[in-house]
UniProtKB/TrEMBL annotation:
Initiates the restart of stalled replication forks, which reloads the replicative helicase on sites other than the origin of replication. Recognizes and binds to abandoned replication forks and remodels them to uncover a helicase loading site. Promotes assembly of the primosome at these replication forks. Residues 216-384 form the Helicase ATP-binding domain. Gene3D superfamilies: P-loop containing nucleotide triphosphate hydrolases (3.40.50.300), PriA, 3(prime) DNA-binding domain (3.40.1440.60). Binds 2 zinc ions per subunit. NCBIfam families: priA, PRK05580.1-4. Belongs to the helicase family. PriA subfamily. GO terms for cellular component: primosome complex. PANTHER family: PRIMOSOMAL PROTEIN N. The lineage of its organism: Bacteria, Pseudomonadati, Pseudomonadota, Betaproteobacteria, Nitrosomonadales. This is Replication restart protein PriA. Keywords: ATP-binding, DNA replication, DNA-binding, Helicase, Hydrolase, Isomerase, Metal-binding, Nucleotide-binding, Primosome, Zinc. Its EC number is 5.6.2.4. Residues 479-636 form the Helicase C-terminal domain. It comes from Pseudomethylobacillus aquaticus.
Length: 737
C-alpha cells in the first residue's frame, strides 16, 4: 500500500518541506520528481511518505512526474545535507538541490553528451610544431601538450584536460582536426582506463611509511589524521598508497578534495597513471554541464572508484566510501561564501565520521584549528620531514629592509636587480602582492605603536575619508589621532600603499620584460586564469605580478625568483587570521621558486625583517610559529578557542540593515545564554554593488550554545517584518569579516 502523501524538498528559501498527493507511480525517498509549485513546475527530492497531512488534502497538488526510477540521493547523503543545513542554518531544500549538478535541477530528463579523447595521429606527429604558424599560439600550445602525451597515456587527452590549456581549446582542436592531425575516441561512460605507468612507484621514506602504516591501522573506522609536510615532501605519494590499499577490496571508493579547479588536471593525470586499475572522475565547475552530470552519476552509481573534486564534490553520493583526503586543507577556498556557507573540510570530517572511514588532511601550513586538534590529540599527527626528492632544494628566503633602501614606486633596488638578473638568464620571476583582506592600520614609524581598539583585542582600521578609526569587531570608533600616544611622534601613517601602479612601474623599469598581471580583475573572464597559467608554462611570460591566486600549487619550472611586497599590513591587520594566512601564502609562494633543478630565491620587502613570522619562514618552522599564534589566540579569545558566527545583512538603505541587526543584537542579548554578542558593525566593504552592509558577530566557547541561539534567532528573523526588505545570512565559523 503506498502512502497517500509525499513530502518533497524544493529549491525555495523556506525552511520546510511540502506535501503533495502521491501520483500513480510510487516514489522512494531520495528520488527526483517534478511538482507544481506556485505557477511553475519545479524539481524536488522526495523526503518521505505519510498517511496524513497537516494540510487540507483537497487542496494539495499531485506529483507531476517521477524523473528517475531509482533514488538519486541515498540516505547517507540526505542525512549529511540535513546535518549541514542545520549547522549552517540554511533551508534544507535549497541545500539539497544546490548539491546536485545543474542538469539534475532542471525539469527535463537529463541526457549525457558524448565525450571524446583526442590524440595526435601519424600525420599530426609527422607535421611537427613548426608547421603551425607562430601566431596560432593556442594551436601550438595544444599541439605541444598532445605531443607530450604520446606514449604516456596512449589514449589521449580529455576535453577537460584540453580546456585546462585554453578556454578556446575547441576552436583550436577543430582547426587541428581539419588538418587531419587528430584522432578522437569516444569515451565509454566517461571511464577511460589510462594505460599504466611503466615507472615503478618509489620506495617510501621512513616518514611516509610510518604515515601509511598508522593510517591503515585504522582502515575501517573513523580516524582523522593531519599529514603535515611541505610541498614536495611526498604527501601525494602517501595519498596514492592509501587509496591503493583502501580500494583493493571491491567496490571501495575514495574521495579526494582539492582547493582549486586548476589543480585537478595535474593530480588527475598523476592518479590515472599510477592507479589505472581504479576508474577516476573529476568534479569541478570547469567541466561542461553534461560532463559534470556524467561524472556525478558515475560516482553515485559506484562505478567511479576515485573522485577528485573541489568544494562542492564533498556532497557527491558515494555508496562505498572507504577513504577521504583533503589536500591543502588550510585553503580558504574550501569555504563557500554564499548560499549555504559550508566549509568543505569540516563537512568532509563529518562525512568521514558518519561513514566510519579514515580521513587525511594534508598541508604544509595547517589551519590553526586543525593544528590545535592535532596538538590536543583529537587528530593523529603525521609529519613528513624533508623534500622527498633530495635534488629539489628549498629556496633561500631573505628579507629586504625597506626602511634602509629607497623605494621606487614600492620596489627596492635589490629586488629590481634580482629581476633584471633573471630576465638576462631567461628565467621567470613572480612578484607577489598580498592585497586580500587589506585594511590599513595606523602605525607609528618611530616606535611601531599601532592604534589599538580600547574595547576589544583588535586593531583599529583607518577610514581616511571619514577621518575615523574603527574597530571592525566591536564597532568602537574614534578620531584619527595626530600624535603617537606612546612616543609623541607626529608622523603617523596608514601602512600599505596602492599597488595598482606596480605593473606600469615594472614596464617602465624593465621595458623588455613580458609582464603578466594575475589578479581578480584580470581573471574575471571564465577560464582566464587557466589561460594565464598555460601562458607561463609556454614561456610566454617573464614577470608575473599577482595576488594569492598565484600562490597555489602550480609548478612553474622556470620560475626562480619570488619577490614579496606589501605584506606589512597583514602583520598588523585587524583581521585575526591575517598573519596565519600570510604565513601560509608565503610558504606556498616560496614553494613556487626553484622547483626543478634551478635553485630558487625568495626576497621579502618589509619594514619588520625581525618579525617572528619571517624568522619562522626563514627556518621553515611552521610548528614554532603556529605555537606562537595559538598562544596569541588563547589570550585574545579567538578561534580555535572560541566559536564564531556572523550575521551578515544588506539592503539598499542602511536604516533597514541597522534595524534588523539591532533586533538581532537585542535578541542575542536576551536569549543567548553563554553567548557573547557584540554590537552591529559595518564591514570593511561598507557598500557592495549598491547595497549597504552590516554585520553582527557572536561568539561562544563551545558550539552548542551558539547553535542554540542561532536556531531561535534565525526563526525569529524569518518572522520579522524587515525579513522581506533585508537580505541576511548566517555565516557559521566565518573566515571573512
Ligand atoms: P607533495 O604532495 O607533498 O607535494 P609529492 O608526493 O608530489 O609531494 O612528492 C614530490 C615528488 O617526490 C614527486 O615527484 C614524487 O614522485 C617524489 N616522491 C615522493 N615520495 C618519494 C619517495 N619515497 N622516493 C622518491 N621520490 C618520491
Ligand atoms: Zn610612537
Ligand atoms: Zn573593538
Amino acid at each position: 500500500m503506498t502512502a497517500p502523501f509525499v513530502q518533497v524538498a524544493l529549491d525555495v528559501p523556506l525552511d520546510r518541506q511540502f506535501d503533495y498527493c502521491a501520483g500513480e507511480i510510487p516514489t522512494q525517498v531520495g528520488q527526483r520528481v517534478v511538482v507544481p509549485f506556485g505557477r511553475r513546475q519545479q524539481v524536488g527530492i522526495v523526503l518521505g511518505h505519510s498517511a496524513d497531512s497537516a494540510f487540507d488534502p483537497a487542496r494539495l497538488k499531485t506529483i507531476t512526474q517521477v524523473l528517475q526510477h531509482e533514488p538519486l540521493l541515498d540516505a547517507d547523503t540526505l542525512a549529511l545535507l540535513k546535518f549541514c543545513a542545520d549547522y549552517y542554518h540554511y533551508p534544507y531544500g535549497q541545500a539539497l538541490l544546490s548539491a546536485l549538478p545543474t542538469r539534475l535541477r532542471q525539469t527535463q530528463a537529463a541526457v549525457s553528451r558524448k565525450q571524446y579523447l583526442y590524440a595526435l595521429n601519424e600525420l599530426g606527429l609527422a607535421a611537427g610544431l613548426d608547421a603551425i604558424p607562430k601566431r596560432q599560439a593556442i594551436q601550438r600550445r595544444l599541439y605541444s601538450a598532445l605531443l607530450q602525451q604520446v606514449g604516456q597515456h596512449g589514449s589521449g587527452m580529455s576535453e577537460a584536460a584540453l580546456a585546462a590549456l585554453s578556454p578556446s581549446w575547441r576552436k583550436a582542436v577543430n582547426a587541428l582536426q581539419q588538418m587531419g592531425w587528430l584522432t578522437a575516441h569516444e569515451v565509454i561512460a566517461g571511464l577511460s582506463l589510462a594505460s599504466p605507468s611503466t615507472l615503478m612507484p618509489p620506495i617510501l621514506n621512513p616518514d611516509q611509511a610510518e604515515a601509511v602504516t598508522r593510517i591503515l591501522a585504522k582502515a575501517k573506522e573513523f580516524a582523522p589524521f593531519l599529514l603535515h609536510g611541505i610541498t614536495g615532501s611526498g604527501k601525494t605519494e602517501v595519498y596514492m598508497r592509501l587509496i591503493e590499499q583502501q580500494l583493493a577490496d571491491k567496490p571501495g571508493q575514495a574521495l579526494v578534495l582539492v582547493p582549486e579547479i586548476n589543480l585537478t588536471p595535474q593530480l588527475e593525470a598523476r592518479f590515472r597513471s599510477r592507479l589505472p586499475q581504479f576508474p577516476l572522475v573529476s568534479l569541478h565547475s570547469n567541466l561542461g554541464e553534461s560532463e559534470r552530470l556524467q561524472n556525478w552519476r558515475l560516482a553515485q552509481s559506484g562505478q567511479a572508484r576515485i573522485v577528485i573534486g573541489t568544494r562542492l564534490s564533498v556532497f557527491t553520493p558515494m555508496p562505498h566510501l572507504r577513504l577521504v583526503i583533503v589536500d591543502e586543507e588550510h585553503d580558504g577556498s574550501y569555504k563557500q561564501q554564499d548560499g549555504m556557507r559550508y566549509h568543505a573540510r569540516d563537512v568532509a570530517l563529518v562525512r568521514a565520521q558518519r561513514a566510519g572511514v579514515p580521513i587525511v588532511l594534508g598541508s604544509a601550513t595547517p589551519a590553526l584549528e586543525t593544528w590545535h586538534n592535532a596538538q590536543t590529540g583529537k587528530y593523529g599527527l603525521l609529519s613528513l620531514g624533508q623534500r622527498a626528492v633530495a635534488a629539489a632544494a628549498l629556496p633561500q628566503i631573505r628579507c629586504i629592509d625597506v626602511t634602509k633602501q629607497p623605494l621606487q614606486d614600492g620596489l627596492s633596488p635589490a629586488l629590481i636587480e634580482a629581476m633584471r638578473t633573471r630576465l638576462a638568464r631567461g628565467e621567470q620571476s613572480l612578484l607577489f602582492i598580498n592585497r586580500r583582506g587589506y585594511a590599513p592600520v595606523l602605525l607609528c614609524g618611530a616606535c611601531q605603536w599601532i592604534a589599538p581598539c580600547t574595547r576589544c583585542s583588535s586593531r583599529l582600521v583607518v577610514h581616511l575619508r571619514q577621518g575615523r578609526l574603527r574597530c571592525h569587531h566591536c564597532g568602537h570608533e574614534e578620531k584619527i589621532v595626530r600624535q603617537c600616544p606612546s612616543c609623541g611622534n607626529a608622523d603617523l601613517h596608514a601602512t600599505g600603499h596602492g599597488t595598482q601602479r606596480l605593473e606600469q612601474t615594472l614596464a617602465a623599469l624593465l621595458p623588455q620584460a613580458r609582464i603578466l598581471r594575475v589578479d581578480r580583475d584580470s581573471t574575471r573572464r571564465k577560464d582566464a586564469l587557466t589561460d594565464m597559467i598555460a601562458a607561463v608554462h609556454a614561456d610566454e611570460v617573464d614577470i608575473l605580478v599577482g595576488t594569492q591566486m598565484l600562490a597555489k600549487g602550480h609548478d612553474f619550472p622556470k620560475l626562480t625568483l619570488v619577490g614579496v611586497i606589501d605584506t606589512d599590513s597583514a602583520l598588523f591587520s585587524p583581521d585575526f587570521r591575517a598573519a596565519e594566512r600570510l604565513f601560509a601564502q608565503l610558504m606556498q609562494v616560496a614553494g613556487r621558486a626553484g622547483r626543478a633543478d634551478k635553485p630558487g630565491e625568495v626576497l621579502i620587502q618589509t619594514a619588520f625583517p625581525e618579525h617572528a613570522l619571517f624568522n619562522a619562514l626563514r627556518s621553515q618552522d611552521y610548528a614554532a610559529y603556529a605555537q606562537a599564534l595559538l598562544q596569541e589566540r588563547a589570550i585574545t579569545q579567538f578561534p580555535p578557542y572560541q566559536y564564531l558566527a556572523l550575521l551578515k545583512a544588506e539592503a539598499n538603505e542602511f536604516a533597514l540593515v541597522s534595524g534588523l541587526l539591532r533586533y538581532a543584537a537585542d535578541w542575542a542579548h536576551a536569549h543567548g545564554t553563554d553567548v557573547l554578542s557584540y554590537e552591529p558593525v559595518r564591514p570593511q566593504m561598507e557598500r557592495l554593488k549598491g547595497m549597504e552592509r552590516g554585520q553582527l558577530l557572536m561568539q561562544a566557547d563551545s558550539r552548542a550554545p551558539l547553535q542554540c541561539l542561532l536556531r531561535t534567532l534565525v526563526a525569529a528573523l524569518r518572522e520579522h517584518p524587515l525579513n522581506a526588505k533585508v537580505r541576511w545570512a548566517v555565516d557559521v565559523d566565518p573566515l571573512e569579516f
